[in-house]
Structures are given as C-alpha cells and as structure tokens.
Amino acid sequence: MFSHITVGVTDLARAGRFYDALLAPLGFRQRKTEPDGGPEALCWIGANRLPEFFAHRPFNGAPAQAGNGNMVAFLAPDPGAVDAAYAAGMAAGGTDEGPPGPRPHYGAGYYGAYLRDPDGNKVHVVHRGDLAP
Q1: pTM
Q2: What strand order describes the sheet that includes 52-56?
Q3: Residue 90 parent element (H or E)
Q4: Fewest CB within a 10 Å sphere: which of 8, 16, 48, 80?
C-alpha cells in the first residue's frame, strides 16, 4: 500500500541515532540516499525494500513540527522486539507515550509501545498477534 513514509526533523544526526536504535531490533537498516533536489534525508528499509521510511528537514526550509494526530507504526516480529525497540529508542533520546505491553482492546495478541522521537513525532512499535497465521 505504501511506497514511503516521511517525518520532518530538525537535526539529521540526532534523528539518525534515534531511528537507527529504534529500528535495528525490528530488522530495518539505513540505506544510502542520493541527492534528488530536495533536502538531505536519511532512509531506512526492511527486507522487502518497500515501504521506505525517511527522516529529513522540511522541503520548504521551515522548522520541522510534529503533527497532532499523526503517528508512524512499525511492525515488530514479536513482543520482545517491541520491548527492545522501545528501550533503544528511549535510550537514544525518545520520550515515553506508553510503555510496552498488551493492548487487548485493539485485538487478541496485540502488544505495543508508544514514544516520540527527539522532534516530537509520535512512533508506535507493535506486534500484531491478532494477525498471526
């Protein structure tokens, strides 16, 4: 469904440290980006290459601002990966929006955590046991 998802950040190095830490336990790795006429960006991909996740300074040059009601959710292979990603993200400058734990009101086997990146973008890491085969 998605080609890529982008969040605006004010400091690429800081965003890189945060998202490298958060996404490594989920199997995502940073890939090299090529200049394309837009602002400098960082990109992470999983085994399937798409969707891509980008962090970059806003194209219009204005300060990055987190959107109220916006959130990016990353799928984790198991609850342990949720725990690891949350802990790594918090250690890399994230702020808590809801610690790891079951969230049965979203479905049987739903286990997730919420945090914000250093720029205030809301991130959710989730294992969807309700979708297991």
Answers
A1: 0.91
A2: 4-8, 52-56, 41-45, 29-31
A3: helix 79-91
A4: 48
